[in-house]
Design a protein that fits this description.
This protein is α+β, with helices and mostly antiparallel strands and 154 residues long. 27% of the residues lie in helices and 23% in strands. Strands 4-3-2-1-5 form a five-stranded antiparallel β-sheet, covered by helices on one side. The chain is globular. This is TY-Chap N-terminal domain-containing protein. Pfam families: TY-Chap3. Residues 5-124 form the TY-Chap N-terminal domain.
């Protein structure tokens, strides 16, 4: 993947999400700030996604009104702050058409690049594993390196 290839990252993420196995977990984080992340969890009936949205220092993530509106328009659910939820979430029924995975990947790419200020996909790392067994998932098609500790909850 070239240094600034957000299009290639979006295509790779689409492919990986469409093939994520049941009980598969994928967390994509900024290599230099692990509190800035997106995560995905595949169940037998949906792909669940979250994007980090922390209003608390030192992990402040300022989600602009424009970014919030873009997430709403793309079908994301706002955090319920009354229940201490901090992350925006999205549920994609499974199985889904390829276009739905692509739309999800485009929204996530935009969030990473524009809201979390990730300058390049090469500034990202990932963790991936099977929830049931904590067995690591190898996802070379994603095109970004695994984080040093590869399995287990983020």
């Amino acid at each position: 993947m070239s240094e600034n290839s957000w299009d290639a990252f979006t295509r790779s993420l689409t492919e990986v999400l469409a093939r994520l196995p049941v009980d598969g977990i994928l967390v994509v984080v900024k290599a230099d700030n692990r509190s800035h992340y997106v995560q995905f969890s595949q169940s037998s009936d949906e792909l669940y996604a979250e994007v980090a949205s922390s209003p608390d220092p030192p992990n402040l993530i300022s989600v602009s009104p424009a970014a919030e509106e873009a997430l709403r328009k793309a079908g994301w659910q706002e955090p319920d702050r009354s229940r201490s939820e901090m992350n925006w979430s999205y549920e994609l029924p499974w199985p889904a058409p390829w276009e739905s995975y692509l739309e999800l990947s485009l929204t996530v790419t935009t969030f990473l690049r524009d809201t979390l200020a990730v300058d390049s996909p090469m500034s990202l790392v990932h963790r991936s594993w099977l929830a049931e067994t904590n067995e690591p998932l190898r996802l070379p098609a994603l095109g970004i390196p695994p984080a040093p500790e590869e399995a287990g909850p983020a």
